[in-house]
Design a protein that fits this description.
Elements lengths: L12 E2 L2 E2 L3 H10 L4 H6 L13 E5 L3 E7 L8 E6 L2 E8 L18 E8 L10 E5 L2 E7 L14 H5 L2
Antiparallel strand pairs: 1-2, 3-4, 4-9, 5-6, 6-7, 8-9
Length: 164
């Protein structure tokens, strides 16, 4: 009777010697989690991620408009600064207090400080910037200076262009 090879669970040493199973190695790699050690050290899932609000930035004919989702952030915890061509929005969202004995089944919301900076094109009128926070959405309106706003020029015969 022929001796059948016996494989170990990890594709390692058998009675016939060392056997390498590439499929078993691939399964091991697929189970490997490089962040597992960090998760075990972290006191809570929120500690491994940071609060980073999303921004929308759009340009209209007369201004640039920035919108950010800041649910749970108080107006007093937001700071907006414009230095030269650099717009910076910083703030924080405080973590809710937990009582002893409370048990979480899911802990997915993030908390902490954030800072976002944007480089603006030339021609923003810094004196006329408006900021508003409504229903957890921050809206910044940065008007363009009149000399950099788009002007439409009519196309026509030379005689009509020369006349006032």
């Amino acid at each position: 009777m022929a001796e059948l090879p016996i494989r170990s669970e990890t594709g390692g040493l058998t009675r016939r010697g060392w056997e390498w199973d590439p499929f078993e190695r691939m399964r091991e790699l697929m189970r490997w989690d490089p962040l597992q050690a960090l998760r075990q050290l972290a006191p809570s899932p929120a500690a491994t991620t940071a609060f980073a609000p999303d921004f929308d930035v759009k340009e209209t004919k007369d201004s640039f408009i920035f919108k950010a989702d800041l649910p749970g952030v108080k107006e007093n915890d937001v700071d907006i600064s414009l230095t030269g061509d650099r717009l910076t929005v910083t703030g924080k969202r405080e973590e809710e207090k937990t009582e002893e004995g409370e048990r979480f089944y899911a802990y997915e919301r993030t908390f902490g400080s954030f800072s976002r900076s944007f480089t603006l094109p030339e021609g923003v009128s810094a004196e006329d910037v408006r900021a508003e926070m409504k229903n957890g959405v921050l809206t910044l309106t940065l008007p363009k200076k009149p000399e950099v706003q788009t002007r439409h020029i009519r196309l026509g015969p030379e005689d009509t262009k020369a006349k006032p």
